Amino acid sequence: MKQTTLDLNGPILGFSTNPQDVTVNNAGIATFVGIATATFPTQTPTNPASNSGIVTYRWYAAGIGALSDGTNTTLKATLSGTATTTLTVSSVTSSTNGIQFFVGADYIPSAYQSSSPVTAGTGRSTGNAINEILFSNNATLTVNPFISITEQPTNYTVAQGLIATFSVTASSSDNSEVAYQWYIAGSPVSNGLSGVNTISGATTNTLTIATSSNSPEETSNVYVTVSNPNASNSPVTSNTVTLEVVPPRAILNLELFGSGFPAPPPPPPPPAPTVPFVVLSVSGPDSEKTVRISFTVLNADRISTNFGYSASNLGNRLISHYQTILNITQATTYTVTATHSNGQSNSASGSTYGPYSG
Asked: Which H or E run includes 257?
């Protein structure tokens, strides 16, 4: 049997350029390069083969297999150049972090002869590479994590001598640890005594501020920074919220009567047994054309007003009411009339100071 020359005198493949590790940010582009050469060995008699074949390439991902151009659902990235010396991985995410890529090189032989034009019967074929398919070294893709804040801190109003708490929820895309630093009035805080307040959790996701009875009545801005040494968007700053320190009485008014209402009038002195007692307070309009009304009635069974509020069957007991009136553009007088079950009545009136001119 005649021996074919197809597997004889072939080249030896070797990588002149191996792919290198790459680090990119989330949604970035990573490029890997692998270049192979075909070298024909020196021999006696002289090797008749000529380097007329070509080196072909195919990129692989460890644990996944051969790759092809387009969107790869496993890697959750877009690939191009999978059959060339240069692989491009686009729109990388945490799913591609830590993936190892390598390229396989193959030698495709071709026909040749020692003279031209080709003479029938003299054709030869370049031999296959002795060591094909040859694989490059592995190169690792590292995708820097990014930080997300999923729950922002919120405003907090605290009475002097009580505790205020601010919290944030944050994480990194690769679940690595993140670090926190809280700020009050633009300055970083640390655990321990700060003025007359005591701080704890200054470098955690929950900041606690224990006020004292001597804490000044003031409003301060509060925010936190979240960092990770490898995150592409580190540090991330939360929303800025407020810490309001108020006297205990202000907190009591807020809880009893709601935000935005004037403080209730002081309790009236005991009235005559059968005559209603009425105290009325009117403020506004403010910049939003809003008037706020509060009144207290004692010893009345029925109440009527000229601003839409009425009540009956009250049992001659103490009644307090708070109300806002919107879209007031001129001076207005508001009247409350209280009537005892025996028919005795009393009234109180209050007027706004005129249209808002601020």
From this structure: helix 248-257
